[in-house]
Amino acid sequence: MKRLWILYKTEMKLALREFSGILFGIMLPVGIILIMGTIFGEKTVEGQTYTQLQRAIGGVITVGLCATGLWGCL
Fold this sequence. Notes:
Radius of gyration: 17 Å
Helix content: over 70%
Number of strands: 0
Order of helices and strands: HHH
Strand content: under 5%
Distance between the termini: 30 Å
Number of domains: 1
Shape: elongated
Structural class: mainly alpha
């Protein structure tokens, strides 16, 4: 467990040094969700029971996860 904690601390230090990973992986998706929430609000998709925001949030979360997980590969 101690090794895992050391690895976690090291990875967090590296993530904080490279701010672009945090920006594109966390802040940008949250900002997009907030913007889409203000634009679409509670508008439902035609013929469906879910809202426009509920339809788009899965894609935004997926892009955020990919940006965070794959940022070190670039």
